Give the backbone structure.
Amino acid sequence: MKYINLMKTYQSFFSKICLSFQENAVPKDIPDSNGQPTPLKPPYLTYQNIVSDSLEPAIMQVNIWSRSSSYLELGELVSKLEEEISEGVALDIVGGEGTVIFHKGSPFIQNMSDPDDINLKRAFINLEVQVYN
């Protein structure tokens, strides 16, 4: 299995929820509708790229970020992810190189806030991931 195809599969899946980035690749600016750079603003999702060579499940950490005075928007995005996963979801890896299966991890979600910015909210989510070649 090519690592790049697994990365593309993760990106495709998480982009269904909202704007998504690998954990260490969040851009400072994104293009607006006219192609001009504009500062990135929540909501967006960040995730780790997890690759396991065994059939044992690995834990993937996902964060959904929101800027609001309440957790409502964040809750809606978490619900959308929860609906996509349901009791488990199997995805074909791009290029037909295997399957990746997502399940809810435990704990599934923890809401967190930033002590320096009361409007910055984060849902810290654990997913169980299995990759089959």
